[in-house]
UniProtKB/TrEMBL annotation:
Pfam families: NAD_binding_10. The keyword tRNA-binding does not apply. Keywords: Plasmid. Residues 10-187 form the NAD(P)-binding domain. It comes from Ensifer adhaerens (Sinorhizobium morelense). This is NAD(P)H-binding protein.
Amino acid sequence: MSERPILVTGATGKLGRLVVERLLARGQPVRVFTRRPETARALFGETLQIAAGDFGDRAALDTAVRGVGRLLLLSPISTRLVTDQVAVADAAVAANVARIVKISGSDWTIEPPGNSISGEAHAAVERHLNGLPTEAVSLRPNAWMQVSLANTIRNAITNSQVVAANLDAGIGYIDARDIADVAVHQLLADRIRGRTLNLTGPDVVSFRQVAALLTAALKRPVAALEKPPRTVPKEGDFEHRAVAQFVRLIAAGRAATTTDVVPTLLGRSPRTVADFILEQVTAETAVPEYQP
């Protein structure tokens, strides 16, 4: 590919910074579009270009995409997700950006439709991308280890409990580092591998199994407790409504899936839940060094 910079939105978040770090490590020119330029500079130093602005500012977007070769499209769950991402995509097309790689919602929030406000928002953006003349691929990561599983681990360390709406519901958790690796692969590859890619870890693990893995890692009993899911509020904060829907869909077994996308693209197995739990427990329970 040419030396035109790759534009990354959402660069200061958990996943965005992993993508940026990987691109920089490969010597790729990177530009980030952010409302927090001081945070981006603190994270990445002088090694990349920073375009400051908001998704709602078309002039700022036009400046950000000028001269860009490819785009990583990522933004938080919110009521503005569709509006914001469509605006970025349209600005990219106008600037002749060659490829858009979108971080989308989990496949089980999108298909079948009607079960998730977050999934509906991501599906709307995917439809828009599919109608554009620019090459585009949407990555649909399953539940992220660094979000839902990390919260479960922290609760177990503190309370010696794993609490779930259905202890036997399985999840094909995926590590955010594997999501970032696939995103970088699709940004840099000669061609994309399809319109949508469903990304999962190597196996399906239930909450009951997570409790057993935590018992072994912590070397003390971790109880597995079942608790009915919260009622999904009909109004209120978009993110909290979306998360409540995620819990119900997971309890129904919708996230219990695996695919071979990660090993096929990367030539290696995705990271496992067992390894992630051990890594997190080690980090969370490490005794700080004594400082005299």
